[in-house]
């Protein structure tokens, strides 16, 4: 079975997941380390003073399972679509292999199993496939090459804490994804509370082949302001994608984030510019008239946070408000997304969510046809 980009049946995938979960329960560490004695050549699983490491391999997984019911449907989508929709869904599964490369770094491979909406089986891609190498650059700098994490999405998913609910603001709107092919350097600036992450990539994402010789340069800079207020940080991000056909796309994000033992709160503001309507991503393109030939500038924000419930340490309330205007010249084409819910940490490996997700549209937004979208979800994240 070639898993680089094929369709896998649900039955086969379910069997594979069951085997992996069983192995993870039988081997709680989910890691295999082998060492060889330098004098005798004997191989063992225990480290010693006269031994060299032969193998350092770990396997882990994560899956998102949910029950979703839609409270509204597009009245113009046909008679069969007017009834509220509900379904049990397994939306995503990640299977990750990590291998140590001795003293020089590590290697990571992640398979991405995605449920096909309205079709049999799962689409399967390699999400991450890269080497992460140590460098002599001060500030613990690491050099990555291959199919790598982009510089912004992973960090914000960690801050938000609820990737299982859905993707973050810039990713959900389609303007910036989580993975691309290229090279990157990440580290700290010595003597300053500044983290940097810069990359040079194709710019097309991991599920699209490169279509021209144009490339994207992107970077993030994060300042830890804990010396001023413990838990406070600010970040800036930018990407310039040269599409090599006389068109350039740019995206910029400014962020403030604060966290303490009781709650966390973040705010993003994003600006985008596309030289051509064809480069405006996904459903946002429908909000821009086909006759537009000028630069298209979008703007919007995301406010997100979570608060722990006193006396119930495993319970957390969370919420998010995204607002996006894909073209600041045209009136009445923006939309808002409201997310609110409660989470329960059943164990270190299992998280449950009950949440409400609504998209409210201006008259010409057309993100979900001609109607707003309201849905309630019971979701779970299982790690193994």
Blueprint of the fold:
Elements (H helix, E strand, L loop, with lengths): L6 E2 L1 H17 L4 E7 L5 E2 L6 E20 L15 E15 L4 E11 L6 E13 L7 E8 L3 H8 L8 H4 L6 E11 L4 E8 L14 E9 L7 E11 L5 E12 L3 E12 L21 E14 L2 E14 L9 E11 L4 E12 L11 E11 L1
Antiparallel strand pairs: 1-7, 2-3, 2-4, 4-5, 4-19, 5-6, 6-7, 7-8, 8-9, 9-10, 10-11, 11-12, 12-13, 13-14, 14-15, 15-16, 16-17, 17-18, 18-19
Q: What would you note in describing this structure?
A:
With 384 residues, the chain is mainly β. It has a domain at 1-60 and 99-134. The protein has helices spanning 10-26, 153-160, 169-172; strands spanning 7-8, 31-37, 43-44, 51-70, 86-100, 105-115, 122-134, 142-149, 179-189, 194-201, 216-224, 232-242, 248-259, 263-274, 296-309, 312-325, 335-345, 350-361, 373-383. The protein has a 16-stranded antiparallel β-barrel with strand order 4-5-6-7-8-9-10-11-12-13-14-15-16-17-18-19. Strand 11 and strand 12 (232-242) form a beta hairpin. It starts with 6 loop residues before the first strand and ends with a strand. Residues 23-29 have low confidence and may be disordered.
Distance from first to last alpha carbon: 23 Å
The SSE order reads EHEEEEEEEHHEEEEEEEEEEE
Mean pLDDT: 86
Per DSSP, the total helix count is: 3
Helical proportion, percent range: under 10%
Unreliable stretches, pLDDT < 50, 5 or more residues?
23-29
Largest sheet, strands/sense/barrel: 16 strands, antiparallel, barrel
Question: How many beta-strand segments?
Answer: 19
**Could you tell me the strand content as a percent range?**
over 45%
Alpha-beta content class: mainly beta
* Principal-axis shape: globular
Q: Which strands sit side by side, in order, in the main sheet? A: 4-5-6-7-8-9-10-11-12-13-14-15-16-17-18-19
